[in-house]
Design a protein that fits this description.
- About 45% of the residues lie in helices and about 10% in strands.
- The strands form two sheets. A five-stranded mixed sheet has the order 1-2-5-4-3. A two-stranded antiparallel sheet has the order 6-7.
- The chain is an alpha+beta fold.
- Strand 4 and strand 5 form a beta hairpin.
- Helix 6 packs across helix 9.
- It has ten helices and seven strands.
Length: about 260
């Protein structure tokens, strides 16, 4: 079995596969003393190396860095042959930077936070994994999608089939999960709603569960749902819960023009 975030687990890449390019950038940054981590679907692939990869034409690379080092990261990206969108980065660089790799592949670098339907602060657990943001943050980045599609559902199921909920080593951090959901009712509402949809989707399309799953995703879904119910709730959470679905609790992100 190959090891998530370990060396040499990916074999020969298919033509056009962005993962080798992403891992080369992350490892090069580490050698230069900087921290860049992989997000999104590529992060799922790093954490689930034994499952069939989800490849699509023209796939971009999503990375993350810390705001305190973003200028050094920007310099490193240029030194690695990535062309910056200087106007975009000057206007938005405190939140997001955009580059084009020498291959022509687009690269988005999120700074400190991932802002989509909800805002996920990446700083508390940044640096735990060698190549990706923390495993629970990869999972939360998928579970926070209000209009969940099959692609993202499969990523969630892969993560829940590959990594234990809680435990030592590379695992899904239950403490961080509970803190994110317990602090913000909107986060809790979206995540628990998506978890409730997944068992039906698995029943309808059992092929979404990899045949070599290390864990039963249905059992892991139940555990995450119970953890969400049991997580201590903030005053802000309780006040917002009184309003409920009468007021929209999420944003619908739009593609940012570069």
């Amino acid at each position: 079995m190959t090891t998530p975030n370990g060396p040499g687990g990916f074999g020969d890449s298919a033509a056009g596969d962005p993962l080798p390019e992403a891992t080369t950038l992350v490892r090069g940054a580490a050698e230069a003393g900087h921290q860049i981590k992989i997000l999104g679907g590529l992060g799922v692939r790093v954490l689930c190396p034994d499952f069939p990869p989800r490849l699509r034409a023209g796939q971009d690379i999503d990375l993350a860095c810390l705001g305190k080092s973003r200028r050094k990261v920007a310099d490193y990206m240029e030194s690695a042959g990535c062309e910056p969108d200087k106007r975009f980065n000057n206007l938005n660089g405190d939140r997001q930077m955009y580059f084009v790799a020498s291959s022509g592949r687009p690269i988005d670098v999120m700074v400190d936070r991932l802002t989509m339907c909800h805002t996920l602060d990446l700083r508390p657990s940044f640096g735990r994994q060698r190549l990706t943001v923390d495993a629970i943050d990869v999972l939360l980045s998928k579970l926070q999608i209000v209009e969940l599609n099959e692609k993202d559902a499969r990523d969630i199921i892969y993560l829940l089939s590959a990594l234990p909920v809680g435990g030592q080593g590379v695992s899904l951090d239950t403490d961080r999960y509970g803190k994110v959901l317990g602090a913000d009712w909107g986060w809790w509402r979206t995540v628990t709603g998506n978890l409730a949809k997944l068992p039906g989707l698995i029943e309808e399309k059992p092929e979404l569960v990899p045949v070599n799953a290390a864990y039963d995703p249905r059992e892991q879904i139940q555990r995450l749902s119970q953890l969400a119910a049991d997580a201590p709730k903030s005053v802000k959470w309780r006040l917002r819960s009184n309003v409920g679905d009468r007021v929209r609790w999420y944003e619908l992100p739009e593609e940012v023009a570069h």
